[in-house]
C-alpha cells in the first residue's frame, strides 16, 4: 500500500504522521500521479498549524512532481508515462501517490530534473506572477524584497537582478546576508537588528522604493508602508511572521500608495494562466536564475523539515524525496 503524511488535528509539526493509505483511482478529468519529489512551502505550515482551515483528517501540501500512472475519463493533452509537476490545491502533495486535475498539470522540460522542479515550481511561479502581473518593475528601479534568503526570496532577487533591477533584501542573520549577496541582492539588510525602513530611505536618498514585496507580514507591515515612494505599491503576499492588520485607506492617502494582497491560486486557476507564468520561469532559469535546494529530506521526515522552516533555519528551497 502507498504511504502519505496525514494530520488528524492541526497543530505543531508532530501532528504529521506517515501512514499507509488505500490505492487511488483518477476520477473524471484527473490523473493518478506516482510522485518522485515534493516541494516544502510556507503554505504547508499554515495548513498544518491551523492558519488555514482544512477538513480533517487531511493530507497537506501544494506542490509535487511525478509520473502519470493512470488517466481518468475526459483527460486530454497528457498521457500515461508523462513527467509533470503541479502547484496549488487541492492539498495533498505529501504522498507517494495522488490524484490531481489534469488541466492544471505543468509538463516538465527535459532540462529541468524532478528535484529542481519541486524546488522551484510553487516559489518560482509566485515570483513570476509577482513581477509580471502584480507590479512590473523596470530596469533601473530599486525595490525591496523581504525574506530575501528564503525560497521565494532567493529566486526573486536573482530574477529581478536579471531584469536590471537593484534589489534591497531583508534577512534574519549575518550568514544569510552573506549568502544573498551572491544571489542578486545588492543591499542586504539584517532586519532583526537594523531599522530596515530607515536603511531603505538612506539607500534610496530619501525617495523610498516603488514596490515592497512582502511575504513576512505582521513584523514588517509598518516599516514597509513607511519606506514606499510616492505612488508606491505595497504587495503583501504572505504571513511568515503573522497576518498584517487591515490596511486603512488613510494610511495610503499621504503618498497615494497602492495596496494589494495577491495569491498564486487565481494566477494558476487554469492551464493557460499556469503555463504562461511557468514559461517565464523556465526561461529565467535557462538564462541563469539558480534554484538552490539547500535542504533535502525524505517525505516521511516532514516533521524535521517543518521545524527547520519555522525556526528560520533554512535558506533557498527544501525538497522531499518520495
Ligand atoms: N501569496 C502567494 O501567492 C504565495 C506563494 C508562495 C509563498 N507565499 C508566501 O511567501 C513567503 C515565503 O514563502 P517560502 O515558502 O519561500 O518561505 P521562506 O521564505 O523560505 O521561509 C520564510 C522566511 O520568512 C522569514 N521570517 C520572518 N519572520 C519570521 C517568523 N516569525 N517565522 C518564520 N519565518 C520568518 C525567515 O527568513 P529570515 O530569517 O531571513 O527573516 C524565513 O526563512 C511565505 O509567507 C509564504 O506564505 C505566498
What is the element layout, followed by pairings?
Layout: E1 3-7, E2 16-20, E3 30-39, H1 42-49, E4 63-71, E5 83-87, E6 97-101, E7 106-107, H2 114-134, E8 142-145, H3 151-162, E9 166-171, H4 174-181, E10 187-190, H5 196-203, E11 209-214, H6 221-226, E12 228-236, H7 249-253, E13 258-260, H8 264-267, H9 271-286, E14 293-298, H10 302-310, E15 317-321
Parallel strand pairs: 8-9, 8-11, 9-10, 11-12, 12-13, 14-15
Antiparallel strand pairs: 1-2, 3-4, 3-6, 3-15, 4-5, 5-7
Helix pairs in contact: 2-3, 2-9
The chain binds NADP nicotinamide-adenine-dinucleotide phosphate (NAP).
The site of NADP nicotinamide-adenine-dinucleotide phosphate has 30 residues, from α1, α2, α3 and α10.
Summarize the model shown.
This protein is of the alpha/beta class. 30% of the residues lie in helices and 26% in strands.
Rounded to an integer, what's the Rg over CA atoms? Answer: 20 Å
Into which percent range does the helicity of residues fall?
25-40%
Tell me the structural class.
alpha/beta
Shape summary: globular
Beta-strand content bin:
25-35%
Amino acid at each position: 500500500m502507498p504511504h502519505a503524511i496525514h494530520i488528524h488535528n492541526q497543530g505543531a509539526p508532530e501532528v504529521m504522521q506517515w501512514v499507509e493509505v488505500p490505492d487511488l483511482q483518477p476520477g473524471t478529468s484527473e490523473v493518478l500521479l506516482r510522485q518522485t519529489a515534493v516541494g516544502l512551502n510556507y503554505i504547508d505550515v499554515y495548513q498544518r498549524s491551523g492558519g488555514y482551515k482544512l477538513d480533517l483528517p487531511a493530507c497537506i501540501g501544494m506542490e509535487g512532481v511525478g509520473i502519470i500512472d493512470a488517466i481518468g475519463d475526459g483527460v486530454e493533452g497528457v498521457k500515461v508515462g508523462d513527467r509533470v509537476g503541479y502547484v496549488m490545491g487541492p492539498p495533498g502533495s505529501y504522498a507517494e501517490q495522488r490524484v490531481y486535475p489534469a488541466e492544471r498539470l505543468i509538463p516538465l522540460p527535459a532540462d529541468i530534473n524532478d528535484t529542481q522542479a519541486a524546488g522551484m515550481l510553487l516559489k518560482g511561479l509566485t515570483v513570476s506572477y509577482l513581477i509580471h502581473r502584480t507590479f512590473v518593475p523596470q530596469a533601473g528601479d530599486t525595490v525591496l524584497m523581504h525574506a530575501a534568503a528564503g525560497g521565494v526570496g532567493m529566486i526573486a532577487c536573482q530574477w529581478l537582478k536579471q531584469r536590471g533591477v537593484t534589489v534591497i533584501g531583508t534577512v534574519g542573520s549575518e550568514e544569510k546576508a552573506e549568502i544573498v549577496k551572491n544571489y542578486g541582492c545588492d543591499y542586504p539588510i539584517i532586519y532583526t537588528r537594523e531599522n530596515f525602513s530607515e536603511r531603505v530611505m538612506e539607500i534610496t536618498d530619501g525617495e523610498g522604493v516603488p514596490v515592497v514585496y512582502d511575504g513576512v507580514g505582521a513584523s514588517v507591515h509598518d516599516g514597509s508602508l513607511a519606506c514606499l515612494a510616492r505612488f508606491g505599491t505595497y504587495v503583501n503576499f504572505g504571513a511568515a511572521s503573522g497576518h498584517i492588520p487591515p490596511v486603512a485607506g488613510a494610511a495610503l492617502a499621504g503618498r497615494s500608495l497602492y495596496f494589494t494582497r495577491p495569491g498564486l491560486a487565481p494566477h494558476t486557476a487554469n492551464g493557460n494562466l499556469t503555463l504562461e507564468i511557468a514559461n517565464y520561469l523556465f526561461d529565467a532559469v535557462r538564462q541563469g536564475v539558480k534554484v538552490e535546494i539547500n535542504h533535502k529530506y525524505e517525505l516521511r521526515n516532514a516533521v524535521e523539515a517543518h521545524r527547520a522552516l519555522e525556526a528560520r533555519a533554512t535558506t533557498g528551497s527544501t525538497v522531499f524525496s518520495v
